[in-house]
Specification:
By secondary structure, the protein is an alpha/beta fold. 25% of the residues lie in helices and 16% in strands. The protein has one domain: Metallo-dependent phosphatases (Purple Acid Phosphatase, chain A, domain 2), CATH 3.60.21.10. The longest helix is centred in the middle third of the chain and has 20 residues.
Length: 443
C-alpha cells in the first residue's frame, strides 16, 4: 500500500538491488529560478507530456493529506493548460484517496461510492474545475491511471467528476499502465501492483466481503489515519509476540513474516484504542462489518504453534495467483514480497525487473508514483541500452524529510539523429518551480 510505504519511510529495508543502477538520485534539490518555464520546449510543437501523481485528494479537508497544497496544485494545472507545448497531462494514480480515512469514520457516510466521489470533488472544487477546463478545451489529453488509494474507484465514478477524461485501465479493476500514443517505449503506472500490501487482492476475504479487491494496506492506512487524527498518541494496547512455527513449512514461515510486518507497523503508529475493540468501520468494496485490529494481526494460541489470522486468512499462499491476476510480468517470490512491503527502493527496483531486465519488454522509460520519493535513476537493459526510471513524487502537505509538489515532464525526441528524449523532474514548493534533476536518452 502506498500509505503503508509512506508511513514506513523510517523503516528502511536494505537490499543489494541497486547493483544494477548506474545512477540513482533520491530527492536532489537544484537551484530555484522563478524564470523557469517547465512547460516550454522552446518551439511551437505541442509534444510535452506532464506526469503528476499522488495528490491524495480527500472528501473531508479536516483530515485530508492534501489541503494546504491545493492552491498551488490548482495554479500549476492552470499553467499546464496555458502552455502551447503541453500535449498530455497524465495523472499517475492516487488522485482520489479512499484509504486515508480515520478507522472510526464511515467513509461513505451511509451512502455509496458515487456520493463519496461527488463530495470529494466539491471539497477540492478548484482542482477539479482546473482539470475539467483542460478536458473541455480539448487541446491537452488528460489521462488517469489508477493507484492503490483509488483502486476500487470505478471508471464510472471517475467519469462522473471528470467527464471526458481518458482512463488507462487494465482488464482488472485497480490497475493500469499507460503508453502515450506513438510512444510504446514509455510506460507510466502507479507501481502498487508489485507490493504485497498494496496490490489488488481479489482472492482473500471473499467469504467475508464478496467481490472485494482491498489488500491489507487499506486497513493499515485506516489505522494510520486514526493515529494521525489522535495526535500521535501513546499506545492503548500491546501486540502479542508470536514465534516461528518451525514445523509448519513454507506457509507458516510466510505467515510469520507477515506478522512481523504488522507488528512493526502497528507499533510504529499506535492508537489509543485497544486491539480487541470494534473500531474499523468499512461499508466499502464488499466489506460491511466493523473490525478489530486483532482481526488483522496474525496470532497463535501456543508458543511455536500454528499461526493464524482472521482477515486475509491464506494471503501468504495466494501471492502467485494474485500476481497472475494483476498482470505482473515477472513474478516476485513471496518471501521477498512480504519482507519488502516497507521498502520504497524495492518498488523503484521493479522498473528494472519488470521492464528493463525483462526480455519480453521493449520499454526504455518508466514512470511510477506510489512511494512519494521523487527521483530519476539510470539503468542498462539486457541489450546494454540506456534506460531511465522516474518517480513523480507527491502533492501531500507533509512528505517527511522530503520535498513535495512534484511533477515530471517528458519531451519526446525529434526526427534528428542527435535529438534526445528529455526527462525532467521538478517541484513547485512555495509556488516556485525548481528543477530537481534531469536526464535524457534516445530510443
Amino acid at each position: 500500500m502506498k500509505t503503508f510505504l509512506r508511513f514506513s519511510n523510517l523503516i528502511l529495508v536494505l537490499f543489494f538491488l541497486f547493483t544494477f543502477t548506474s545512477c540513482n538520485k533520491s530527492d536532489p534539490v537544484g537551484p530555484s529560478d522563478p524564470g523557469i518555464n517547465p512547460f516550454s520546449n522552446g518551439g511551437t510543437e505541442r509534444n510535452m507530456i506532464v506526469i503528476m501523481s499522488d495528490m491524495h485528494l480527500g472528501a473531508d479537508l479536516s483530515y485530508a493529506e492534501c489541503k494546504n497544497n491545493l492552491p498551488a496544485l490548482e495554479k500549476l494545472i492552470k499553467q499546464i493548460k496555458a502552455s502551447p507545448n503541453v500535449k498530455e497531462l497524465v495523472i499517475g494514480g492516487d488522485l482520489i484517496d479512499e484509504w486515508f480515512v480515520p478507522a472510526t469514520t464511515n467513509t461513505y457516510e451511509g451512502g455509496g461510492q458515487s456520493g463519496f466521489v461527488s463530495r470529494l470533488a466539491a471539497a477540492n472544487s478548484g482542482v477539479f474545475a482546473a482539470l475539467n477546463s483542460i478536458i473541455r478545451e480539448g487541446l491537452i489529453l488528460v489521462t488517469y491511471v489508477p493507484g492503490n488509494h483509488d483502486l476500487a474507484i470505478t471508471a464510472e465514478s471517475i467519469e462522473s467528476v471528470l467527464p471526458g477524461i481518458n482512463q488507462a485501465r487494465d482488464n482488472v479493476l485497480g490497475l493500469g499502465t499507460y503508453s502515450p500514443a506513438g510512444l510504446p517505449k514509455i510506460a507510466i503506472e502507479h507501481g502498487h501492483r508489485y507490493n504485497f500490501f498494496c496490490a489488488p487482492d481479489p482472492i482473500s476475504n471473499q467469504t467475508v466481503a464478496p467481490g472485494t479487491i482491498m489488500p491489507p494496506g487499506y486497513f493499515f492506512t485506516r489505522i494510520a489515519a486514526l493515529y494521525v487524527k489522535q495526535g500521535h498518541p501513546a499506545p492503548g494496547d500491546t501486540t502479542p509476540i508470536i514465534t516461528p512455527n518451525i514445523s509448519g513449512g513454507m506457509s507458516q514461515d510466510l505467515m510469520y513474516r507477515y506478522w512481523k510486518d504488522w507488528y512493526m507497523t502497528v507499533n510504529l503508529f499506535p492508537i489509543t484504542n485497544r486491539f480487541d475493540e470494534n473500531l474499523i468501520v468499512t461499508n466499502i468494496n464488499g466489506f460491511t462489518g466493523t473490525y478489530k485490529v486483532n482481526d488483522l494481526i496474525p496470532y497463535q494460541t501456543t508458543q511455536g504453534g500454528f499461526i493464524n489470522v482472521n482477515l486475509y486468512n491464506g494471503i501468504q499462499d495466494n501471492w502467485e495467483t494474485r500476481q497472475t491476476h494483476n498482470n505482473v510480468p515477472v513474478h516476485i517470490d513471496a518471501p521477498l514480497a512480504i519482507d519488502s512491503v516497507n521498502s520504497n527502493t524495492f518498488t523503484d527496483y521493479q522498473a528494472y525487473q519488470q521492464y528493463f531486465a525483462n526480455p519480453n519488454s521493449g520499454v526504455r522509460l518508466v514512470v511510477f508514483g506510489h512511494t512519494h520519493m521523487p527521483k530519476i535513476s539510470v539503468y542498462q537493459n539486457l541489450s546494454n541500452e540506456k534506460c531511465i526510471y522516474a518517480n513523480s513524487g507527491t502533492w501531500i502537505d507533509n512528505n517527511p524529510n522530503l520535498t513535495t509538489m512534484h511533477f515530471v515532464v517528458i519531451t519526446p525526441q525529434g526526427a534528428s539523429a542527435t535529438s534526445q528524449t528529455l526527462v525532467k523532474l521538478y517541484n513547485f514548493e512555495n509556488q516556485v518551480v525548481t528543477k530537481m534533476d534531469e536526464n535524457s536518452l534516445r530510443f
